């Protein structure tokens, strides 16, 4: 049975066109999943998370914040590398994503998601941590660091988005209804094509496919409309809440890990043709962010795209561990 197989083998043995529940029921995570239950905006909610304790603890904790098209499970390689180096690793699914609650009505803000994450960490006794955020998780990590500077030992940002204000640069507002319409129309082929060009610099490997099916499977499942609605609300949050203006306010050391071939910009395809080439230029955005952040260390991967931790895990994790060690308290 699938449940008895190792995680990687179980994913390979899964159907090629799987269907998952609205909370990603049926998709196995690489480590045991726990639930943090809490009340927010009058709703009883839960956040799924993995809490992986190392065999030889070094006394530090890293919290992993996933991106918009990712889940806690996609951090498996990073969890393994960090745990082997002695770090306790906490990897949650944010509300609206993956195995966590999909509320019918929720005002999504990065402040709210940061507060939810802080509550989770308090509930499991994590008083201070390094926060590693990727993509949209990078925006959330910045907001977390601004709200909870005393609890944030260090930030590590892997190709964070929000390093430019798309609205100010001319990307039109799509609004929640348009995002909802777009999300209902998504499928595995569209997800795969986008990820191949943006995440992996037009190179595709079989190990990327489970993450495509993870997302597409929820859109094939019985909760498709609820999943798409929450996704639409989240896209609107990302578009309307850039963090670029507040980067100079960060007080902790910040490690920027940037794949310079990345071209990610929310709503870029809806922008006027003359504006699109100017958006998502990570070769410039990384350098600009490093200049704006008081204690920044910039590491660039000149042959990588939006997901360097998945495109070349060894190089990424070598740089990550080196950067974490340099900021050791």
Number of helical segments? 12
**Share of residues in strands:** 15-25%
Give the CATH topology.
Rossmann fold
CATH superfamily: Alpha/Beta hydrolase fold, catalytic domain
Order of helices and strands: HEEEHEHEHEHHHHHEHEHH
Shape: globular
The value of Rg in angstroms is 18 Å
Task: Report the average pLDDT across residues.
Answer: 94
Describe the sheet with the most strands: 8 strands, mixed
Structural class: alpha/beta
Strand order in the largest sheet: 1-2-4-3-5-6-7-8
Domain count: the total is 1
End-to-end span in angstroms? Answer: 46 Å
Which CATH first-tier class would you pick? Alpha Beta
Number of strands: 8
In the predicted model, the low-confidence regions spanning at least 5 consecutive residues are 1-5
Helix content: 25-40%
Query: What is the correct CATH architecture?
Result: 3-Layer(aba) Sandwich
Please outline the helices and strands:
Layout: H1 7-13, E1 34-40, E2 43-52, E3 61-65, H2 76-84, E4 88-92, H3 110-123, E5 129-134, H4 136-147, E6 152-158, H5 166-169, H6 175-184, H7 188-198, H8 209-220, H9 224-240, E7 254-259, H10 282-292, E8 296-301, H11 308-311, H12 313-326
Parallel strand pairs: 3-4, 3-5, 5-6, 6-7, 7-8
Antiparallel strand pairs: 1-2, 2-4
Helix pairs in contact: 3-4, 6-9, 7-8
Summarize the structure.
This protein is of the alpha/beta class and 329 residues long. The protein has twelve helices and eight strands.
What this model shows, in words?
- It is a single chain.
- The chain has one domain (27-171, 241-326): Alpha/Beta hydrolase fold, catalytic domain (Rossmann fold, 3-Layer(aba) Sandwich).
- Helix content is 38%, strand content 16%.
- The protein has twelve helices and eight strands.
- An eight-stranded mixed β-sheet has the order 1-2-4-3-5-6-7-8, with helices on both faces.
- Helix 3 (110-123) packs across helix 4 and helix 7 runs antiparallel to helix 8 (209-220).
- It is globular and about 50 Å long.
- The N and C termini lie far apart (46 Å).
């Amino acid at each position: 049975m699938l449940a008895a197989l190792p995680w990687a083998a179980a994913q390979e043995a899964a159907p090629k066109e799987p269907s998952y529940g609205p909370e990603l029921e049926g998709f196995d995570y690489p480590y045991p999943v726990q639930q943090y239950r809490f009340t927010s905006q009058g709703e009883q909610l839960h956040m799924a998370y993995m809490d992986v304790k190392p065999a030889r603890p070094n006394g530090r904790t890293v919290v992993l914040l996933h991106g918009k098209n990712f889940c806690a499970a996609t951090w498996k390689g990073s969890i393994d590398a960090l745990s082997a180096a002695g770090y306790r690793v906490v990897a949650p699914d944010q509300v609206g994503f993956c195995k966590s609650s999909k509320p019918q009505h929720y005002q999504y803000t990065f402040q709210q998601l940061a507060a939810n994450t802080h509550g989770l960490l308090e509930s499991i006794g994590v008083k201070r941590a390094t926060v590693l955020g990727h993509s949209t998780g990078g925006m959330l990590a910045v907001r977390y660091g601004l709200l909870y500077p005393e609890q944030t030992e260090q930030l590590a940002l892997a190709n964070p988005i929000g390093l430019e204000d798309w609205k100010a640069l001319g990307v039109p507002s799509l609004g929640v209804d348009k995002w909802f319409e777009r999300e209902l129309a998504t499928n595995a082929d569209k997800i795969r094509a986008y990820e191949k060009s943006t995440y992996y610099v037009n190179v595709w490997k079989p190990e990327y496919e489970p993450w495509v099916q993870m997302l597409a499977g929820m859109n094939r499942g019985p909760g498709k409309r609820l999943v798409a609605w929450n996704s639409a609300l989240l896209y609107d949050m990302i578009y309307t809440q850039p963090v670029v203006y507040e980067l100079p306010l960060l007080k902790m050391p910040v490690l920027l890990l940037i794949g310079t071939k990345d071209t990610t910009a929310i709503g870029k395809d809806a922008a006027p043709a003359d504006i699109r080439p100017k958006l998502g230029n990570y070769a410039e955005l990384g350098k600009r962010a490093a200049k704006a952040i008081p204690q920044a260390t910039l590491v660039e991967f000149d042959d990588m795209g939006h997901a360097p931790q998945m495109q070349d895990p060894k190089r990424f994790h070598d740089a990550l561990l080196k950067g974490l060690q340099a900021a050791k308290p």
